[in-house]
Amino acid sequence: MPWFVERSAEISTERMLQLVRQAVVEARRRLCASPRRVLLLPPDITRMHSGAGWITEAFYNIFDDEAEVHVIPTLGQHEPHTPEQNRVMFGQIPLSQIHPHDWRSGVVHLGDVPADYVRDVTSGAADWSIPIWLNDKLMKESWDLIIHIGHVVPHEVLGFANHNKNYFIGLGGKETICTSHMAAACCGIENNLGNLLTPIRKCFNKAEEDFLADLPDFYVQLVLARNTRGKLVHTGVYVGDDLETYLEAARQSRQQNITVLDRPIEKVVCYMQPDEFASTWVANKAIYRTRMAVADGGELLVIAPGLKRFGEQPEVDRLIRKYGYCGTRTVLERYREDAELRDLAHAAAHLIHGSTEGRFRVTYAPGHLTRDEIEQVGFGYADLHEVWERYSPQQRQEGWHEANGERFYFIPTPSAGLWATAEKLYGRPSGFGE
After folding, report:
1. Residue 17 lies in a domain
2. Which of 82, 108, 110, 121, CA to CA, is 20 to 30 A from 369?
3. Interatomic CA distance for residues 250 and 44, integer angstroms
4. Could you tell me what percent of the chain has a pLDDT over 90?
5. Domain check: are 223 and 269 in the same one?
């Protein structure tokens, strides 16, 4: 059970800081009364809208006088923060105490989730083991407290983000990230989204029990929703060190962050904030989170003024440019033929997740990519200036709108939720439950 829970229509900044102090009191009582070394594990800047950055700073300030405090943003394979991004995200935390995660060479091998277990929980969709490689600073150094701060929200691989995803993706090594993402893709993105215990979540739960049971860690799980003014605000805080802490947060997110529609939407317009979404690797969350709502033959327009690349690393960017979002069948064919794509299996999984299978169109209005680049990967192109004038995304709240005789459904920050028709959400093979 969680150590404590707070639910409210809107949790203020002042109240959140009180809850941070309460979490510290509980951690001192339950894990370590006088910690000398503390590790904070927040998300990266693609989740800055969650407020996890300033909450991390609050934890840092509490422990700074008595302990050596370090921060590792749980980047996974995302691009490391610049110093400026760290200042924006984490305020006055000294840059010397913020460490980038190196998913290739800064990890150690702990063991494997066996292939038989993976095959069982995926119902045969994946038949390989998942090697567990984790950040070497996490595993090789001694910590008195390890604090996860994260946003629980629907997710394409784990069903919901955060909890031990922070370890196995956020601080995971290449083999862990690649094998788990490909297994999730083989299970089907639309079977994962919004389910509390997906096959890969079960694999990570087993890995946490097998390899991390002795760590002095706990989770601060945040739930957000839009208030009556359309602003994302904190509505839930779940603090504890067990699986139920995640499950209770995910249940609230399931209630507040999933919009169930009676019928499919012909035109969806999404806005991706420029300070968070610089690649289609992350901006494609607009596709992931709306794909169960877009009508057959419909259109998703993604307004992404910060978009300047496709992948988070040059080699992945090159593979995306080479193959494009060409559909599951074609990606799997290329995966069997191309050793580099097999080596970077998370890229193959990303191409599957971002493909519409020809069911609807995706049009990008990017800030820094050309028409040829966008069309090369299989998307339609729209001029950012023209789209900005037509749809005025900075002035709109989520919901139905009309502009120039066109009716559309607008979503700001689609990464903060999931949209689906009742038929697709409740009628899928994986169901809608635990």
Report:
1. yes
2. 82
3. 20
4. 94
5. no
